[in-house]
Amino acid sequence: MNFRQRSGFTLIELMVVVAIIAIIAAVAYPSYTNYASRARRADGKEYLMRLAAAQERYYTNLNKYASLATLGMGNKSEKEYYEGSVTLTHDDQTYTLTAKPVGAQASDKCGSLTLTNTGAKGMSGSETNGKCW
C-alpha cells in the first residue's frame, strides 16, 4: 500500500492558533491603551508647567497673574491632547491652571489636571494623584 503523507494544517490546528492570538490580543490591548494614555498625559503636564512659568514671569513684572490671552498663550497643548484654562482669584494674586483632556485623551482616568500658584497639583478623575502627576 502506498500512503501519501499530506502536508498542511488541519482546521482544528488553525482554530487553536487563532484562539491563542485572540487571548494574547485581549490581554495586550488594555495595557497598550493605558500606556498610550499615560504617554499623552505628558503633553498636559508640560502645558501646565509652561503656563505656570509664563504666569510667574508675568507676576515678576506686574505683581499680578494674567489670563491666557494676556500671556499670549494658546488654549491648546502642543499636541492638542489638552485644552487649558486659567482661573484667577483674590484680585489676580492667585491662579489655578486647568488642562482638560480632549480628543484621543478624553477618556483618560485622571480627568482634568490642575496646578495652582503654590505648586499644588491635582486632578478630577478616579486615579490616585501619584499616578497622574
Structure description:
The protein is built from 3 helices and 4 strands; from the N terminus they run ααββββα. It has 133 residues and is of the alpha+beta class. It has a domain at 41-132: Pantoate--beta-alanine Ligase, Chain: A,domain 2 (2-Layer Sandwich), CATH 3.30.1300. The protein has a 4-stranded antiparallel sheet with strand order 1-2-3-4, covered by helices on one side. Strand 1 (82-89) and strand 2 (94-101) form a beta hairpin. The protein is rod-shaped, with a radius of gyration of 25 Å.
Write the layout of secondary structure elements.
Layout: H1 11-62, H2 68-71, E1 82-89, E2 94-101, E3 113-116, E4 121-123, H3 129-132
Which characteristics define this entry?
3 helices; Pantoate--beta-alanine Ligase, Chain: A,domain 2; 133 residues
Q: Please estimate the helix content.
A: 40-55%
Structural class: alpha+beta
**CATH architecture descriptor of the domain at 41-132:** 2-Layer Sandwich
* CATH third-tier fold name of the domain at 41-132: Pantoate--beta-alanine Ligase, Chain: A,domain 2
Shape: rod-shaped
From the alpha carbons, calculate the radius of gyration and give it in angstroms: 25 Å
Outline the biggest β-sheet.
4 strands, antiparallel
The fraction of residues in strands falls at 15-25%
- CATH top level of the domain at 41-132? Alpha Beta
Helix count, per DSSP?
Answer: 3
Total number of beta strands? 4
Low-confidence stretches: none
